[in-house]
């Protein structure tokens, strides 16, 4: 599966957000700035959770270079829930 979540348009930059993966291996988020500038990370086996997170990233304009750091922070915070 490879699903387009949306774009964040900033003057001079267009970021595209996708969710990819499958039930067995898990689902991830991919953020593309250009053909050579993108980042992708597996997030969870819960598709709804990943889709919601990708939507939040689009609304808050998360850049490819920040994706891993933000996901690490979210994982660390969830250890204390």
Task: Write a short abstract of this structure.
This protein has 81 residues and is an alpha+beta fold. It is built from two helices and four strands, in the order E-E-E-E-H-H.
Helix and strand topology:
Blueprint: E1 2-10, E2 13-22, E3 26-32, E4 38-44, H1 47-60, H2 67-78
Overall geometry comes to globular
The helix/strand class is: alpha+beta
Terminal-residue CA separation: 30 Å
Q: Uncertain spans, ≥5 residues at pLDDT below 50?
A: none
The ordered H/E elements are: EEEEHH
Count of discrete alpha- or pi-helical segments spanning 4 or more residues: 2
Strand content: 35-45%
Q: How is the main sheet built?
A: 4 strands, antiparallel
Radius of gyration (Å): 12 Å
How would you name the oligomeric state of the polypeptide chains in this document?
A: single chain
Q: Give the strand order, joined by hyphens, for the main sheet.
A: 1-2-3-4
Relative helix content: 25-40%
Q: Average pLDDT across residues?
A: 91
Number of domains: 1
| Count of strand segments | 4
């Amino acid at each position: 599966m490879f699903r387009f979540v949306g774009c964040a348009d900033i003057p001079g930059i267009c970021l595209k957000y996708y969710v990819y993966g499958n039930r067995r291996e898990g689902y991830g988020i991919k953020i593309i700035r250009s053909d050579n500038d993108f980042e992708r990370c597996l997030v969870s086996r819960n598709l709804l959770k990943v889709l919601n997170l990708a939507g939040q990233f689009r609304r808050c304009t998360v850049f490819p270079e920040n994706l891993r750091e933000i996901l690490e922070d979210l994982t660390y915070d969830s250890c204390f829930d």
